[in-house]
Amino acid sequence: VHPNVSQGCQGGCATCSDYNGCLSCKPRLFFVLERIGMKQIGVCLSSCPSGYYGTRYPDINKCAKCKADCDTCFTRNFCTKCKSGFYLYSGKCLEKCPDGLEANNHTMECTSIVHCETSEWSPWSPCMKKGKTCGFKRGNEVRVREIIQHPSARGNPCPATSESRKCIVQRKRCQKEGKGKKNREEKRKKSNKDESKETRQESKGRAARRQNREQRENNNKTQPKKRKAPNKEQDLAPVDTAH
């Protein structure tokens, strides 16, 4: 072993040097050179840093640098994320997306252009005017449809989702359901009130008659019975003196 090479290294190194850092790594770790000023130092990492991709060999696992426009990559020729100002498409970083694709500034990728899609029109609504379906001759009817797919930045915009047209209905009177119901309710309340009033009056009348009857009975019990007056005609009858 070279005198500058040590076997008792730290930080995942299998062999190391005081000047160059790690020279080899322990199993499953990746060896990568980090530049510090004018000097390169070997380090051993569990995964490759941003801008590098890992390759495994029987004797050593190494981290190799991605292309200059790649932020992360799977191999040198296949990028997984591009640096600022570039758009990812099929593993490559492009300044401008190909024809038929558009740049997505959120994901920084070239994606397919998406056009708007809508559902079928609904049936026409009843002919109405000011929220009513009666009491007029001319009104409007409408139909609607829903947006199924919103468009992308360069996609075809969505058309109108509602339509209106003039309509004619047979002239007819509106049924005053609300007013009739209100009148019926008022009549019912008034009837109940009148019945309650009559019931109260009848109750008062019965109570008054009962009280008068009881008072008469009490008076009869307390007053003495009157003696029957003699019949004056009988007293003045002529006396038979024939005998």
Helix and strand layout, with pairings?
Blueprint: E1 5-6, E2 13-17, E3 21-25, E4 30-36, E5 39-45, E6 52-56, E7 61-65, E8 70-75, E9 78-82, E10 87-89, E11 92-94, E12 101-104, E13 109-112, E14 117-118, E15 138-144, E16 147-149, E17 162-168, H1 177-222, H2 232-235
Antiparallel strand pairs: 1-2, 2-3, 4-5, 6-7, 8-9, 10-11, 12-13, 14-16, 15-17
Distance between the termini: 196 Å
The major β-sheet equals:
3 strands, antiparallel
What structural category arises from helix and sheet content? alpha+beta
Task: Using the CA coordinates, give the radius of gyration.
Answer: 56 Å
List segments where confidence is low: pLDDT < 50 over at least 5 consecutive residues. Answer: 232-237, 239-243
Number of strands: 17
**What fraction of the residues are assigned to beta strands by DSSP?**
25-35%
CATH fold category name of the domain at 6-64: Hormone Receptor, Insulin-like Growth Factor Receptor 1, Chain A domain 2
